[in-house]
Amino acid sequence: MKNVQWKAVIVGFCVDIIGSILAISAIMGVMVFVLVKQYGMDISQPQLIDIITKVSTYRIIGLIFTVAGGFVAAQIAKRSELQHGLLVGIVHVTLAVPITLLIIFMNRTIPSSIHLVQLFLIIPCAILGGYLRYVLIGAKDTK
After folding, report:
1. I need a surface site. Which of 23, 51, 104, 129 has the fewest CB within 10 A?
2. Does the residue 98 lie in any domain?
3. How far, in Å, are 23, 35, 36, 37, 94 from residue 48 at the CA level?
């Protein structure tokens, strides 16, 4: 743990969260704009879009940004790529567990398995980001 650059972990985590929020917000904004433009304000969203598919898509986008966060953390640290990716995942899971449990208990329309699968995939995706940095760039930096 003494080789950890916490600044890299924090920046990687911020890339993960902020990137996810911005991407999902942009997609939702475009989707709502198109639906309102096409059908007017009278249409209810669950009639047009299956909510499980929508949430799954958002979760996948979030995991893509988790990979990016692990990559950025490893890039900033320039060493111990997998460890920095792992730490981004651990920070994310630590903060996501209480929020996810709250969502599961308050919103029964979305199966809890979707939320739980994402929780279990956060750490591997963050490590994958660190690994990708190691494979794509890491060998060049160690010379």
Report:
1. 51
2. yes
3. 21, 9, 12, 14, 35
- Residue of 107, 122, 103 whose CA lies nearest to 65: 122
> Following DSSP, what letter does each residue of 93-142 receive, concatenated?
HHHHHHHHHHHHHH-TTS-HHHHHHHHHHHHHHHHHHHHHHIIIIIHHHT
Question: Is the C-alpha dihedral spanning 124, 135, 10, 15 positive or negative?
Answer: negative
Give the pLDDT score at 87: 96
- Show the CA angle centred on residue 129, arms to residues 53 and 72, nearest 5°: 110
N-term to C-term CA, the chain: 23
Residue 87, domain member (yes or no): yes
Q: Above pLDDT 70, what percent of the chain?
A: 78
- Structural domain count, the chain: 1
Residue 100 lies in a domain: yes
Residue 75 belongs to what domain range?
6-141
Domain-embedded: residue 1 = no
Q: Sorting pLDDT into bands at 50, 70 and 90, what band is 26? A: confident
